[in-house]
Design goal:
The protein is an alpha+beta fold and 330 residues long. It has 2 domains: 164 residues, YVTN repeat-like/Quinoprotein amine dehydrogenase (Methylamine Dehydrogenase, Chain H, 7 Propeller); 95 residues, Histidine kinase-like ATPase, C-terminal domain (Heat Shock Protein 90, 2-Layer Sandwich), CATH 3.30.565. The strands form 5 sheets. It has a 4-stranded antiparallel beta sheet with strand order 1-2-3-4, with no helix packed on it. Strands 5-6-7-8 form a 4-stranded antiparallel beta sheet, with no helix packed on it. The termini are far apart.
Length: 330
């Protein structure tokens, strides 16, 4: 049936044009993917708080409908490529917390959500299902998800759990997992389940019923227990670097981050003009950098010391307490 008589009449010409167009398209794509182009030459789009993006995004997940979901301490957000919006179901199904720790998009189009205060929610088409410790989940914060061919794994402060599509089940020594906490859980391409813990790495081979391990000492973090400390360090380091460059006329700045005993220590040293004693004590009118750094340290339960003098440079030391036995990631 001749639906396009003009194309039928000139099909050879159209075919030649189409071939040329495809060659040009492929050449353009090859040029776009050329490794000779630097990162600076590629197109960039950035979203900030000014354009509506939430701050302190810790994790992403994209569901089958195209929405990009974002974990933040202020709540759950989603992004359609143009606008960000905070998501909060109707009152009867409201989320238990604002601080989202983990997200996982499942193949069916749903979104699994783990919370700082504990519990898991599943969101799909506006409907929310809830699970808590009484439903077989570990107590405390949920730090991550991973999905295999049989169900969904959840790692958290109080251990590991598995969802078979109907109910959650705690995973413990009976299944070969003897650790107290599960920092992260992953599923490899061949179906091996890997769990990081304070004891090391546990592995469950495809088809096996028990974990083996622990292997090594790979648990270098307690993912979100010290989230406030990570934010405090970043903000204070940012302010210290800004002061050194903008006000201190420093030529060199050195920054170190490490652990001493049960304290996390950030040190920033510069060779600038230093800060006068009056300014160090009272601050500068209309400027809140020094006061803000001290306030951040105090709110995090730590302390901030600044040693400086006119012409001698500045040394800033931030010390934050860590829970015993925690090995921070940095």
């Amino acid at each position: 049936m001749p639906m396009f008589p003009l194309f039928a009449r000139h099909k050879r010409h159209v075919a030649r044009c189409l071939s040329v167009f495809l060659c040009l398209l492929l050449a353009a794509q090859a040029g776009a993917a050329s490794p000779e182009r630097t990162l600076a030459q590629r197109e960039h789009t950035a979203w900030t708080e000014r354009s509506g993006a939430p701050e302190r995004v810790s994790s992403f997940a994209q569901t089958a409908d195209g929405w990009l979901w974002l974990c933040t301490p202020r709540g759950l957000f989603r992004f359609d490529g143009m606008r960000f919006e905070q998501v909060q179901p109707a009152f009867a199904q409201r989320f238990p917390d604002t601080d989202v720790y983990a997200l996982h998009a499942d193949p069916a189009g749903g979104l699994w959500i783990g919370w700082r205060t504990g519990g898991i929610r599943h969101l799909r088409d506006g409907a929310v299902r809830n699970w808590s410790a009484k439903d077989g989940l570990p107590h405390g914060s949920i730090w991550g998800f991973a999905q295999d061919g049989q169900g969904l794994w959840a790692a958290g402060l109080d251990g590991l759990a598995w969802f078979d599509g109907t109910a959650w089940k705690r995973i413990g020594e009976e299944q070969g997992f003897s650790a107290r906490k599960a920092s992260s859980v992953f599923v490899s391409a061949d179906g091996t389940v890997a769990v990081l813990s304070e004891l090391g790495l546990f592995l469950r081979a495809p088809g096996a019923r028990r974990f083996t391990g622990p292997v090594g000492k790979l648990d270098a973090r307690q993912p979100f227990l010290q989230r406030r400390h990570a934010d405090t360090c970043c903000r204070i380091a940012e302010e210290a670097l800004r002061n050194a460059c903008r006000h201190g006329a420093a030529a060199h700045v050195a920054m170190t981050l490490g652990r001493a005993g049960d304290e996390l220590t950030l040190a920033v040293r510069d060779d600038g003009i230093g800060i006068g004693s009056d300014l160090l004590k009272a601050g500068k009118q209309g400027h809140w950098g020094l006061a803000g750094m001290h306030e951040r340290a105090l709110l995090a339960g730590g302390r901030l010391d600044i040693v400086t003098g006119t012409g001698t440079g500045t040394e800033l030391t931030l010390q934050l307490p860590l829970a015993k036995g925690v090995h921070p990631s940095y």
